[in-house]
Task: inverse folding
């Protein structure tokens, strides 16, 4: 190979960052390919955080100084390059992507619009919530799609408690009420954490607020049960735990419209709420729809072959939530697509890592096969529910309680392991166990 093969990865989420890290380490240690491969990671943010952890940021139980990872530093440590900016264009004929200008908080230009050439392009930009065109969601509801969203929600939650403590007038019906629309994993986990952390905030001297009478978390789901994508026994166990915590669970309830301090259901019932979170539905970003002439589905996901190559361009790959990857074994053999889960992004990153050398040397690619290892949902500090080993034994093993919580934590540790290696993860875990004993369970800023 006489020229440098440029691999561009767009999206620094779980899959994209893991792939860039592994490839950087791999080619830096391979003398035959080190100078023949260039790896570039592109993301519109400066830092990375594991998306399943956003509900902890929103609830205020995560110390971002410990969990946030700087892309520039990670690139330096693991032998790849980082470019900040948002993907806004794709020129397949000239094999280059267009990155939007990056501006700081005050609107000052940091980096101009750029074109980045590629030989192999991997699109891994994740997913967003889908409001299905529901009136008022865009204007009044909070989402948890990014770190900025989670920080904004947490600050509003703390301010709501401070406001209630200092006001002279009685609390309005909507005050200190949090309505979470969508009882998937994000909605369920956030409702459980909020029940605990809002009471922790109130315990810091806010004696004018009664946590049992004034605070309320309401979880709303359009389907007949919460966690509708998971087995019935898991959703039943999760609902029982939430109700025992004091969370109000409403199912078979479709939200018709969202207002500034309430929401209205399709049956006309109105639910007052000071904070409204939209956590229902999943879709890929709108700009991916047929970008560069690539095939996409109704959820804006790029349609890919079993090799993860896009159907209309073998040099462009898609993985994670933004990819519609075939899953023939789904739905009792009727087929489907791989679900948008962190475990799928992790598996696809590992698969592509193993195939990149085949791509460079123009050898045949192997197909990716999704392995469903079950699902876990966190319900607070000491409890989780889920099913494990579903793809291995043909059924599922129901687990809950402390053991399920340990398994849930281990999923995050696997992600950290892919980014940092054993030594740093072990030392970091020990440091956090010591550090957490000297800090409050919830941040107030």
Result:
């Amino acid at each position: 190979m006489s020229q440098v093969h440029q691999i561009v990865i767009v999206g620094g989420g779980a899959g994209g960052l893991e792939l860039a890290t592994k490839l950087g380490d791999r080619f830096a240690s391979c003398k035959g390919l080190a100078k023949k491969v260039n790896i570039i990671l592109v993301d519109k943010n400066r830092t990375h955080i594991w998306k399943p952890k956003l509900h902890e940021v929103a609830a205020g139980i995560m110390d971002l100084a410990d969990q946030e990872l700087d892309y520039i530093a990670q690139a330096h440590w693991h032998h790849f390059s980082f470019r900040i900016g948002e993907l806004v264009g794709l020129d397949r004929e000239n094999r280059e992507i267009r990155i939007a200008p990056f501006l700081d908080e005050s609107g000052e230009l940091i980096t101009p619009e750029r074109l980045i050439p590629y030989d192999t392009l991997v699109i891994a930009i994740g997913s967003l919530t889908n409001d299905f065109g529901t009136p008022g969601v865009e204007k009044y509801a909070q989402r948890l799609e990014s770190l900025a969203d989670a920080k904004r929600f947490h600050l509003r939650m703390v301010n709501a408690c401070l406001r209630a403590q200092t006001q002279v007038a009685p609390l309005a019906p909507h005050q200190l009420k949090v309505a979470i629309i969508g009882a998937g994993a994000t909605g369920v986990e956030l409702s459980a954490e909020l029940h605990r952390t809002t009471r922790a905030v109130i315990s810091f001297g806010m004696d004018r607020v009664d946590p049992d009478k004034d605070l309320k978390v309401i979880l709303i789901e359009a389907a007949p049960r919460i966690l509708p994508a998971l087995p019935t026994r898991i959703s039943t166990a999760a609902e029982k735990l939430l109700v025992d915590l004091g969370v109000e669970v409403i199912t078979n309830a479709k939200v018709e419209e969202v207002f500034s301090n309430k929401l209205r259901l399709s049956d006309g019932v109105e639910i007052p709420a000071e904070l409204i979170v939209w956590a229902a539905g999943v879709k890929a970003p709108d700009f991916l729809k047929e970008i560069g002439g690539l095939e996409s589905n109704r959820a804006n996901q790029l349609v890919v072959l079993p090799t993860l190559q896009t159907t209309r361009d073998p040099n462009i790959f898609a993985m994670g939530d933004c990819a519609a990857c075939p899953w023939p074994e789904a739905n009792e053999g009727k087929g489907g697509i791989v679900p948008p889960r962190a475990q799928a992004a992790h598996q696809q990153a590992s698969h592509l890592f193993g195939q990149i050398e085949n791509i460079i040397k123009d050898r045949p690619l192997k197909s990716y096969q999704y392995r469903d290892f079950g699902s876990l949902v966190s319900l607070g500090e000491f409890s989780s529910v889920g099913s494990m080993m579903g793809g291995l034994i043909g059924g599922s093993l129901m687990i809950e309680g402390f053991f399920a919580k340990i398994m849930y934590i281990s999923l995050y540790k696997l992600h950290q392991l892919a980014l940092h290696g054993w030594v740093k993860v072990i030392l970091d875990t020990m440091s956090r166990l010591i550090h957490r004993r000297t800090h409050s369970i919830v941040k107030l800023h």
About this structure: The first helix runs from residue 14 to 28.
